[in-house]
Amino acid sequence: VEDYELIHRLHRHAVDHGRDWTVRVVGGALARTDAPASPLAFLRQRRRWFGGFLQTQHWNRDMVGARRFGWLGTAMLPVKTLDTLQPIYGLAAFAILIGLVATGRFMVALPILIVMLVKIAIDLTFHLWSLGIYKNWTGQREGLGLFPALIAAILEPFSFQ
Question: Domain boundaries in the chain?
Answer without folding.
Answer: 1-84, 105-161
